[in-house]
Here is the input.
Amino acid sequence: MNPRYGVLCVSGSHTHQEGYAAAFAADARARLIALTDEANVDRRRRDLNERLAKQLGIPYIPDLDKALGNKDVNLVCSCAPPERRGRIAVRCAQARKHLYLDKSLVPQLREADDLVAAVQKAGVKSHMFSFISQPWARAAKRVLESKRLGTLLAIHADTFFSKGRTGTATLGQRRREEYPPQRHQLVEAKREMDNCGIYPITLIRWLTGRRYRSVYCVTGNYFFQEHQKHNVEDFGLISATLDDGLPVTIGSGRYGWTSHPAFGANRIVLVGSEQTIVVDANRPRLQVYTDETPWTPPNTHKEDPMGFWQSTMQEVHLRPKPTWTIFNSAAQADAAYFLDRLDANRDSELNAVEAAHGTEVLVAAYRSAANREMVTLPLAR
Here is the structure.
């Protein structure tokens, strides 16, 4: 099959581009053209960009505008840091390139509105990385469509990542959230309500087709000194209502290498008048117990103590956790899902418009956590 989509990658190693670019490269419909970034990135970021470009066997173009001028580029896969991703995505849309975007979309409501306007004006298609293409998420969708539950009464969703050395935070002091949040992604810490919470937020919206109408949120530091040092949360809870009054709750965050037999909890609980059904990414599974050496966390990587990135975990020889063997349908790559939509000339089910609603929910959540009050949506512009 001749590649139909030329892919331009924005930002390199120590981002999710390590996985996203590999997924596009593995699809016969796509061809990686180059890796690029803004011209004024710092030396560390440029080195990381050049590193991944070399690994992928593609050129590094150190000027985003020049790279966007390449007529072979149809699609941009952007993993720019949160503070830069809004303006970069707008520029790519203005260049009339389809957008495959890292999550969460952008940190500020104004940036989300600007991106939606740019995408709609350019007429390009867009997608934000999410769970919606995963077999277990599709199974939850089928449950709701089957009407087996009767009347849907409530939803609870959990997304927790089991990475990092836990037990280092100082407990006993209540965290005070800042609003608006200023820092989302640092070398050794991320805002985990943003980083992890966007998954269940968008999943619930996709499953129900309903918008959020009220949000109450608390955030805390329970596990990691790295997060506590930078005053970014490692854990958060959301209690919300959708536009028809349906109550939903979300638990999300990061809780340590040894806190889970696999690499974290991803599940959704659908409460109905006739049945309550739990759809779990880690089920069905085989639990294996042997006399082999117990799993232990990898050595701490000095540039990635929380275990965020594939490349750094390879360098410290992260081993698979052997206790759970998950039996599930083969997961479609999220990149392949977006290429399927482009082939069909259809926008993603989680396009920039949908993703922007997730941004609004996150902004409301941080406002709620800072002010300790319920926040009603839509937010004032």
Remarks:
- The chain has two domains: 5-124, 135-331+362-376.
- The first helix runs from residue 17 to 25.
